[in-house]
Design brief:
Length: 210
Amino acid sequence: MKKTLLLLIGLFYGNLIQAQQKAVTETGEEVILYDDGTWKYQNENQVPEKEIPTNPKKFIKDKESTFLLKSSKLNVGVYINPKIWSFKKATDNPDAEFELQLKDGDLYGMILTEKVEIPLKTLRSIALENGKASASDLKIVKEEYRIVNGLKVLLLQLNGNMQGIKFSYYGYYFSSTNGTVQFITYTSQNLLDSYKPESERLLNGFVEIN
């Protein structure tokens, strides 16, 4: 599946955190504009407030994840297993800092960092609402707070369909006064269950560097 639409789905992910296009009607109603020419009233597209559960388990990095991949923007990093993951500075997606790929499979990853602090619930809403501009059926199918190496993160799994390919994003969202990190893995929906153990091991390498 190398160099196929699944890689383009990774490029699309950078749009999830970009500002939405908004307009105001003649009657003063605020609406959201989508790339396909459709629109919705702002109030109709709001993500309803809900209680997000917290996983009681403590998540820590895998002992075989020995290489620390450091952000050049924030004091965070990711411990990875270089025997099974390849990585590079992001070139395909301008919004990402690093791109990763499972060496023997069709599981991909990316790390997006920015210095702005964004509340996790707000980040959740932005990712879902803006993602629908390119994949109108995008939805959150799993969400929970986790403590990963002492840091509170939000786990999100988002499923959608783009040009006939059913894909899944599975990743961690983190924000503090230091900035915001989106650490995402993605693959096709039919492969996620088999890749989830590797995805989890990769994601659990996320750390803050003092």
